[in-house]
Amino acid sequence: MNLVTFSLVLTGVLLNACAQLLLKAGADAIGTLAFTRANILPIGIKLATQLPILGGLACYAVSVVVWILALSRVQVSLAYPMLSLGYVVNALAAWYLFGEALSLQRVIGIGIILVGVYVLARS
Question: Which domain holds residue 54?
């Protein structure tokens, strides 16, 4: 995988991770949602007016374009497992931004993912 291809894959992964974090921030701003027939429209309006949620959706849209560019240059069997780097980014960012737990088990899991991505990237 050359530098351009790796950059596209990594950009796609980071955009996807950013989208998740923005969606989480928007969901936290709204609070717990309980869907019923009576509140579908009000909840839809709340979701559609949350800037973090709109930003997350925009990140997803851009990430699809970047991902297509990446897939045009590399095999999907190599690119797709790289998405697991998003788990690492999200776990660390969620710990930092939202105060989510980063237990020893999660750290070990992150280490396993990183080793797996390294082995895959070297193939």
Answer: 3-122
What region, left, alpha or beta, does residue 99 occupy, with left being phi > 0 and alpha being psi -120 to 50 degrees?
left
Distance, in Å, from the CA atom of 25 to the CA atom of 11, rounded to the nearest integer, reads 21
Q: Nearest-CA neighbor of 16 among 79, 81, 46, 61?
A: 61
The number of residues in the chain equals 123
Percentage of the chain surpassing pLDDT 70? 100
Token match 């780097």: residue? Answer: 85
What pLDDT, in 10s, does the model give residues 39-85?
Answer: 888 888 888 899 999 999 999 999 999 999 999 999 998 899 899 99
Domain count, the chain: 1
